[in-house]
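can u do me a favor
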């Protein structure tokens, strides 16, 4: 495979009103080691990955509406936006929208007697293309993270391992996930962005991960609420953001996602 491409990508279907910004962005990114990808597929970076958690604003019909807003912004701007709904909403959302759908968690299990667990194959069958692993609200032991990443790879799910600091991120990179999302837990849901409050955590994580495994993509999260936060994250070397309440609980989620996407185009 051409080394200038990452295997996970989403073809730009149409540029919409942001055509000039997107074309300028594509030209600029072509000189950064080819980290922007235009192969066929569902996921590419930079990415805005929206974790629906279990918010009422992102449950049932609300989850579908939010995913449709995300798809609209993605089509209009060309920026990849992924969504991570609750498990029971994965199937209907995956059938309704063309943007990538992620699970919020998988268990490192196979078929068998595992009542109440989340089987990776079931997540894949429901239509998810990837999964979060080890979110701060669903922590796993290191051995289980390793096993979950392996199981995700076996069923061809993109793995996004959540971490809380640089040393943990470096350790996670050795497990060969597809992405790492660094989120200091004390900033989650505070509206205080890690890209501004603790920029050194972001830069040191990017550097540490690249030393261990240069193929792993680094995202950042925690407190991301506006376009400036997203632009700061991109300038610090990440390839996107993992965000939840900043979008899900916003008065106008569409407007916020549009602001995020525009910030990436102009970063």
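np, heres the sequence
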């Amino acid at each position: 495979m051409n080394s200038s491409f990452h295997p996970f990508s989403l073809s730009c279907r149409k540029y919409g009103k942001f055509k000039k910004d997107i074309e300028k962005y594509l030209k600029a990114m072509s000189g950064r080691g080819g980290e922007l990808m235009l192969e066929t597929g569902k996921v590419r970076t930079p990415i805005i990955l929206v974790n629906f958690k279990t918010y009422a604003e992102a449950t049932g019909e609300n989850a579908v509406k939010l995913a449709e807003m995300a798809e609209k912004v993605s089509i209009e701007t060309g920026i990849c936006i992924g969504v991570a709904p609750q498990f029971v909403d994965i199937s209907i959302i995956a059938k309704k929208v063309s943007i990538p759908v992620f699970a919020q968690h998988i268990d490192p299990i196979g078929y068998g007697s595992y009542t109440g667990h989340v089987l990776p194959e079931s997540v894949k069958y429901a239509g998810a293309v990837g999964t979060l692993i080890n979110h701060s609200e669903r922590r796993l032991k290191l051995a289980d993270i390793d096993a979950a990443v392996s199981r995700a790879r076996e069923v061809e799910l993109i793995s996004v391992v959540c971490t809380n600091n640089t040393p943990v991120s470096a350790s996670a990179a050795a497990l060969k996930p597809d992405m790492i999302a660094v989120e200091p837990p004390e900033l989650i849901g505070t509206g205080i962005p890690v890209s501004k409050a603790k920029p050194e955590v972001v830069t040191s994580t990017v550097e540490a991960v690249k030393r261990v495994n240069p193929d792993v993509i680094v995202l950042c999260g925690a407190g991301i609420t506006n376009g400036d936060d997203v632009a700061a994250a991109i300038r610090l070397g990440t390839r996107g953001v993992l965000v939840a309440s900043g979008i899900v609980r916003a008065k106008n989620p569409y407007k916020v996602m549009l602001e995020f996407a525009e910030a990436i185009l102009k970063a």
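The two ends are 28 Å apart (CA to CA). hope that helps!!
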